[in-house]
Amino acid sequence: MSVLDVKDLTIHIGDTKSPAHAVDSVSLHIERGEVVALVGESGSGKTLTGLAIAGLLDPPLRRVGGEITLLGEDLSALPERQLRRRRGDRLAMVFQDPMATLNPVLRIETQLVETIRAHRNVGRSAARDEALAMLDEVGITFPAQRLRAYPHELSGGMRQRVAIAAALINQPALLIADEPTTALDVTLQAQILALIDQYRRDHGTAVLWITHDLGVAAGFADRVLVMYAGQIVESGPCARVLHAPAHPYTAALLGAIPGSVPPGTPLATLPGQPPSLSPPPEGCRFRARCPRAEAACIAAPPQVAAGEARTVRCFFPLVTPP
């Protein structure tokens, strides 16, 4: 049984007359101990997908369809009170800005202890010992001193480690990480990646890593899902997708990475802008920007196999389908 199964997740934003189809029939699964990277440019629907899985969308503004199953339980059918019990216990989320997670007026000790006691019948002293051990596990020096600190007294990298500690302290089955290293320098990025990688190896935690950084995905993920204009356009084992992309959009993303071309050579660029999703364009959503587009692309391409354990949403993929 997969840790996470998402089937036909659809998110509409706005009024009923002209909603934006921000996420369109997205399906994915993650196994125990597996890292799946969800990549794509800003506005592609990555963060909305993560928030929907965690049940953190605002219902008056966003209507969610599809099925979200965690450890065999349908989260999309749970009332809010039960869903809150799952968050922080079976499922946890780390955001790009740790201050979106940490309360600025509470000490670190209070926040970690209450995170434990909200989900488990543990005494305050025992919970404090767990919090101390968790800070040490995420690589925070002088953890007893940091427990007494407020978030503003810590550096950005240290705050992110505390946010990760809070997410992992109840040993969730699934961790959703939404660009948690984007605001950090490269040294801290490497440390955070190594920390989460070691934790998931030790505890079997499944990880959904949301990022626009293909370099991070290449060094960390087992599988990669490429998202464009609210749809998964390519998926498969990370090494195969990034070394031999099947979708023209994936190839364009890889061609825009500094170092992918000889020094002095201009980076590849795509003409135009991502399409408006209110309403979405007919046919292939990448058609207006695709160098391989033909008349057939006026129809919506299905998601088809593109080799072992790979799929692509394209009539004219860069690799020959089996």
Task: Tell me what the structure shows.
The chain is globular, with a radius of gyration of 21 Å. It starts with a strand and ends in a 9-residue tail after the last strand. By secondary structure, the protein is an alpha/beta fold. Helix 3 packs across helix 4 and helix 4 packs across helix 6. The chain has ten helices and twelve strands. The relative contact order is 0.14. An eight-stranded mixed sheet has the order 6-7-8-3-9-10-12-11, with helices on both faces. Strands 2-1-4-5 form a four-stranded antiparallel sheet, with helices on one face. Its main location: membrane.
Write out key terms for the chains shown.
322 residues; alpha/beta; eight-stranded mixed beta sheet; globular; cell membrane; membrane; nucleotide-binding; ATP binding; ABC_transporter-like_ATP-bd
Question: Topology of this structure?
Answer:
Blueprint: E1 4-13, E2 20-30, E3 35-39, H1 46-54, E4 62-70, E5 73-74, H2 80-86, E6 91-94, H3 108-117, H4 124-137, H5 143-147, H6 156-168, E7 174-178, H7 186-203, E8 206-211, H8 214-220, E9 223-228, E10 231-237, H9 238-243, H10 248-255, E11 303-305, E12 311-313
Parallel strand pairs: 3-8, 3-9, 6-7, 7-8
Antiparallel strand pairs: 1-2, 1-4, 4-5, 9-10, 10-12, 11-12
Concise synopsis of the structure shown:
This is ABC transporter ATP-binding protein. It contains ten helices and twelve strands. Helix 3 crosses helix 4 (124-137) and helix 4 (124-137) packs across helix 6 (156-168).
Measured by DSSP, the beta-strand proportion falls in 15-25%
For the biggest sheet, the summary is: 8 strands, mixed
Q: In percent, how helical is the residue content?
A: 25-40%
Radius of gyration, whole Å? 21 Å
Mean pLDDT over all positions: 90
Category by helix and strand content: alpha/beta
Shape: globular
| Quaternary structure of the protein | single chain
Instruction: Return the string of H and E elements.
Output: EEEHEEHEHHHHEHEHEEHHEE
pLDDT < 50 runs, ≥5 residues: none
Distance between the termini: 27 Å
Beta strands, count: 12
User: Helix tally?
Assistant: 10
Which strands sit side by side, in order, in the main sheet?
6-7-8-3-9-10-12-11
Membrane topology: Peripheral membrane protein
Keywords: ATP-binding, Cell membrane, Membrane, Nucleotide-binding, Transport
Protein name: ABC transporter ATP-binding protein
Family: Belongs to the ABC transporter superfamily.
